[in-house]
């Protein structure tokens, strides 16, 4: 199976060279002493060591063993529990939490970078941490002081873990349909009753207690999404000091058998008048959830990027090793009885695509995380709004596109191995199976596409798009005299105009027929994603060219960056054309068939 | 899991209306009384019943149970053996074989249609038959009379099964590297020694003997592909009457653990001076194999088409059933608490894509099979050559594109199910896992692409392409007065010219740098595939329009055909643009990075 090697050099490139964090985080007193190379590199190196040596070795066994369910208990694969303890001891569970509750108060960006390594080395294991983080963030933002003291501190310490209980069997994307009830009790708590499905990390043996964050309806709550409230439901009830009391009436009744992420327990959770505590205002549960959902979407985007990275690593090693046929331009390695397959253009194209997706995806995910930090910490309302809007616009793009491109990279990974890619032992097919979940959970690609086009672009009357195209125009303007960038900037400039035009075109059509929005949405998301990638690749090319011009000891690294940018522009960016053409044909042929007439 | 329902109406559409088999097979005396609706429909109905009721119910269990290996023996999943017996009793193993050896002498086209149903209902089970068929064909074409009497008759009767033993661990796509040795023995037989991997159906419990067709090298054979010979190696030695004698020295030493097709045993086969018999001339084994390989490629194309079909069926049923959110244009089903997801354009687009791939794929696969029949049976050398060349040109396209589009359809199938698609129980993820093998075996997509561009198009100096564009031009010419087809014909006409131009462009570039061929090949294959599909969809639209104009009781069926053609032209055919643009950027950015500089 592919050995995971944290791509530290490229992570540093994005952090220090592209995002310039040493300078940009100076404005925040909380981070001024922390976001420098020494501190950040130390975090990254400890995390890389943990990922490469502690959890990567558990990845394949975790897949093969899976989780075991017996009488309400879930046993995770061998080594998962010990790795969790080590992770907590290393302080990673407390990374971004408020120091008041035991946290280290580090920014989201650092967490996202570390999260990339966790997901790349062991997706299933990393999910336990991801869900816990979601619960922590929700408590931090919406919990009372007492709730934080009781629950958050233990989550931060990694002694307990958390979950997010949203989905019900009939209510996935459409949370307005949920039925779980919350009955107010005399003591101020609530009795929560209902069944939740697809609860990742809902039950396991990593920690002594599990804190569920649960969506449920109060009696007489309005129907739909405006009648949903949020509750804390601990697995074990606890006293005010956090000591465990009796078992609460929430049990895992089954775990799912899944295509992938076997090491993570996907639980059916039954709440039978379980004791719960309201977080945030009544009937505003979905609003409280949005904080989590947006963070979770960036987190899922990072999983997609991690899939691209590990699929690339595995395939690259194999492509350098495996011998088959001779290069079309003549024998390259006469001492071998065939050339390594990396000489073949079709293999190279797949590797370059993976590389362009991984490195471009890293740039996008980290870029978003940086803006999440700005939104959270800036005191400048204009800066806050700008970052908030950019985040709103880019989050569905990152979530959908990084996971879809992660799936594509995983596919190439198997393909480069040929028939061997299909064999479990090599570990490449596991990447496909694990990554497959990422375009489904936290809002499918189709949901993200509607979010982007309907809620973000059209509802803002194009403002959120305009922010982005302005950013690109600004970059073009600032670099117009840079001859090395000319071909990139010309492409970007054309695409930028085309992007605004096609958006206007959809806007106009949507006024005649709202289905035009849905029919255009997925193409629009892909179309937009390639342009966003093109912008980031142009920025990265600029930096690389600058370093090369100045003189550097890392010439090969920067040359590779330039060549990958060129590859992206030559071979991938053209995909915008198909999506543009498809948008232009409108909704008619999509909507033409009656539901009854699809098959005979 | 999706229930398999044989798409008989659409199969009949392709057979009788598109390919006009009743008329076209009249020219062959062998088929004149057989290829009529009565006979063919009866075959199809018996096969559909067998597939829907005998092997489809074994599909999911087959995946879950898998094959078991113990001390050289393989146990197939429950029911597989009984289904094989029933299949043989129904006469399907003898379908296309020469009546002289117990066969029914039916054409390949009928086998391909039945094979679609077998693969759609139980891919793993169907493979046992596919491999047997390969062995039968090889024996029929290259075996001696005695070999046929001894081995072929038993394979035809389904009492024995066969395999094709090509791959070795270091030699997959590059068969020139194989090392298995064949030592001539005093009695005229050969002692075969070596290890073969990825031998589908290499060992199992379905039949009493297994006839391996094995590639091996004679002593002092020339190196590479010109020194490979072909041998029959039976699992049990047999006397001239076909009675089983002692066990031959060929054993299965392990079976692979794979991403999918768990019900089919993928075996490591060890030959330890096993007794073998030469088939065909010495050192011409690969040439003898080509017959099999080309048929096998059409067979694999059919697997891809079958994946599109079953993924479509499963997703369609779910999309009509599952409720989530309301249509953007307003509530469609007020009596329900949400609309079925088939109202949403993004879901419809995926369903329509699957439908366009399944029905277009069926047209292409059957079209090829018809030409395979012509090549085999025609006495007209011109007709033979035309069909042979068309087959040579279209086989890599069908193999690569039907399997890639099958994978895409399978992905959409999971996606339409949302999170539920990831759960094993629903059966949608199994389609993804099973279908994944199809772009790998029988020559990867990349190998097919090189075959198409380098061997078929460039080596023929464009002749094989010209045959195809002439066929399209002829269709355009014949229908130029048909106003209903105008928009299709205009597109086809432009694409046809563009196709020739881009081929010339590649030809020119390849003279400067042979790597241009490899760099263009995969894009060229996709590009060509979409045009071939466009041609077939235009032909199908023409038929549907004609039926509607004439008046029909099946108005909805033909309307759906027209609307699917329109969808293909609106939403899928645009993909040619990205591939064209990508080809035009050439090899430079693909070849730019040194093998050492892909990662740092």
Automatic annotation (TrEMBL), chains A, B:
<dbReference type="InterPro" id="IPR009075">
    <property type="entry name" value="AcylCo_DH/oxidase_C"/>
</dbReference>
<dbReference type="GO" id="GO:0016627">
    <property type="term" value="F:oxidoreductase activity, acting on the CH-CH group of donors"/>
</dbReference>
<dbReference type="Pfam" id="PF12806">
    <property type="entry name" value="Acyl-CoA_dh_C"/>
</dbReference>
<keyword id="KW-0285">Flavoprotein</keyword>
<keyword id="KW-0560">Oxidoreductase</keyword>
<dbReference type="InterPro" id="IPR009100">
    <property type="entry name" value="AcylCoA_DH/oxidase_NM_dom_sf"/>
</dbReference>
<feature type="domain" description="Acyl-CoA dehydrogenase/oxidase N-terminal">
    <location>
        <begin position="43"/>
        <end position="158"/>
    </location>
</feature>
<feature type="domain" description="Acetyl-CoA dehydrogenase-like C-terminal">
    <location>
        <begin position="471"/>
        <end position="594"/>
    </location>
</feature>
<dbReference type="InterPro" id="IPR046373">
    <property type="entry name" value="Acyl-CoA_Oxase/DH_mid-dom_sf"/>
</dbReference>
<dbReference type="InterPro" id="IPR025878">
    <property type="entry name" value="Acyl-CoA_dh-like_C_dom"/>
</dbReference>
<dbReference type="GO" id="GO:0050660">
    <property type="term" value="F:flavin adenine dinucleotide binding"/>
</dbReference>
<feature type="domain" description="Acyl-CoA oxidase/dehydrogenase middle">
    <location>
        <begin position="164"/>
        <end position="272"/>
    </location>
</feature>
<dbReference type="Pfam" id="PF02770">
    <property type="entry name" value="Acyl-CoA_dh_M"/>
</dbReference>
<dbReference type="Pfam" id="PF00441">
    <property type="entry name" value="Acyl-CoA_dh_1"/>
</dbReference>
<dbReference type="Pfam" id="PF02771">
    <property type="entry name" value="Acyl-CoA_dh_N"/>
</dbReference>
<dbReference type="InterPro" id="IPR037069">
    <property type="entry name" value="AcylCoA_DH/ox_N_sf"/>
</dbReference>
<keyword id="KW-0274">FAD</keyword>
<dbReference type="InterPro" id="IPR006091">
    <property type="entry name" value="Acyl-CoA_Oxase/DH_mid-dom"/>
</dbReference>
<comment type="function">
    <text>Involved in the assimilation of dimethylsulphoniopropionate (DMSP), an important compound in the fixation of carbon in marine phytoplankton, by mediating the conversion of 3-(methylthio)propanoyl-CoA (MMPA-CoA) to 3-(methylthio)acryloyl-CoA (MTA-CoA).</text>
</comment>
<protein>
    <recommendedName>
        <fullName>3-methylmercaptopropionyl-CoA dehydrogenase</fullName>
        <ecNumber>1.3.99.41</ecNumber>
    </recommendedName>
</protein>
<dbReference type="InterPro" id="IPR036250">
    <property type="entry name" value="AcylCo_DH-like_C"/>
</dbReference>
<dbReference type="InterPro" id="IPR052166">
    <property type="entry name" value="Diverse_Acyl-CoA_DH"/>
</dbReference>
<dbReference type="InterPro" id="IPR013786">
    <property type="entry name" value="AcylCoA_DH/ox_N"/>
</dbReference>
<comment type="similarity">
    <text>Belongs to the acyl-CoA dehydrogenase family.</text>
</comment>
<feature type="domain" description="Acyl-CoA dehydrogenase/oxidase C-terminal">
    <location>
        <begin position="283"/>
        <end position="453"/>
    </location>
</feature>
